[in-house]
Amino acid sequence: MSQKYEILYIIRPDMNEDAKKELVERFDSILTDNGTTVAESKDWAKRRFAYEIDDYREGVYHLIQAEATDAEGINEFDRLARINNDILRHMITKVED
Fold it and tell me: What is the pLDDT of residues 2-53, one digit of tens each?
């Protein structure tokens, strides 16, 4: 049985468009290479933060809706997002039907 996930992550606002696109593609492929199906991957909005994160006052929110039979891709995404300096914060949520 597959489980649905919503992944929201915040990208540094000072990245150029090509670098940001490359980052999004890389993290989408981390999911798909590990057996997770990406239903949707889109920029949500550029928002101002309530408080500074790593000296940034705003960031680009990116939303992924995915489905997985096991958590391997989700866990790999989580691990790599933690150590990536271009991703300021990320949150992975299981979606209940």
Answer: 899 999 999 999 999 999 999 999 999 999 999 999 999 999 999 999 999 9
Residue environment code for 13-36, b if the CB has 16+ CB neighbours within 10 A, otherwise e: beeeeeebeebbeebbebbeebeb
Answer whether residue 1 shows pLDDT above 90: no
63 φ/ψ angles, rounded to the nearest 5 degrees: -115, 130
Cα of 34 vs its chain's centroid, Å? 15
Alpha-carbon radius of gyration of the chain:
13
Q: Structure tokens of 86?
A: 């271009």
The span from the CA of 72 to the CA of 3, in Å, is: 12
**What's the count of helices (H) and strands (E) in the chain, helices before strands?**
2, 4
How many other β-carbons are positioned within 10 Å of the β-carbon of residue 2? 11
| 97, pLDDT greater than 90 | no
